[in-house]
Amino acid sequence: MKIKLRIIAALALAFAIGITTASNAQEANIPWEQLGAQEQKVLKPFHDRWESLPAKRQARLQKGAHRFSNLNPEERQKFKSRFKKWQKMDPEKKQRIRKRFQKFRNLPPEKQEKLRKARNWFQNQPEGKRHRLKKRWGNMSPEKRQKARKKFFQRRKENRMGNGVPSHMGEKRREELRQKRRDRMKSLQ
């Protein structure tokens, strides 16, 4: 019985040591010399303190440098201007953005996709309309915002299901549009 307990304890200890060494291996610092020439160029501002950065941060920076290196010149310029804007932001605003981003990352993939589509729709609107929508949205209470979200997604769903006829129109106008669509379809046959 004692031998079985010793074997089990030894296996448990070996397993625990294996787990900790595996997790330490994943979190090992990346030597500066191991970075590619382009990555070193991008990460040059971090050179002096590179060795003191946590391994996870080094890995994130390396990944970002690699992505930056693969951008075309126009995308790089866009990135640089966004980064300057980020640097000028006050810490409270940065924190709000980080929290919102983390909240987004924790959403299920289908909700994330729904939000991406809504954002793309908004981005494709004319500038004047976007400005009006932003202003209106900013003046709404949280309850009214929630109601507006539901109404927006309900309309989109109905538009997809109702032959492309907007649901916010009067019934008579909707029927007229349906009839026009049917007539066009007949003329194409």
Describe, in plain words, how this protein is organized in 3D.
- The chain has 189 residues and is mostly helical.
- Among the domains are: 23-71, no CATH class; 105-161, no CATH class.
- It is built from 9 helices and no strands.
- It has helices spanning 2-26, 37-42, 55-69, 73-88, 91-105, 109-123, 127-139, 142-161, 171-188.
- The longest helix has 25 residues, at 2-26.
- The radius of gyration is 28 Å and the shape is elongated.
- The termini are far apart.
- Mean pLDDT is 80; it is low at 9-13 and 19-25.
Please give a quick description of this structure.
The protein has 189 residues and is mostly helical.
Mean pLDDT: 80
Number of strands: 0
The shape is elongated
- Largest sheet entry: none
Secondary-structure element series: HHHHHHHHH
Q: What attributes characterize this protein structure?
A:
single chain; 189 residues; mainly alpha; elongated
Task: Furnish the topology, listing elements before pairings.
Layout: H1 2-26, H2 37-42, H3 55-69, H4 73-88, H5 91-105, H6 109-123, H7 127-139, H8 142-161, H9 171-188
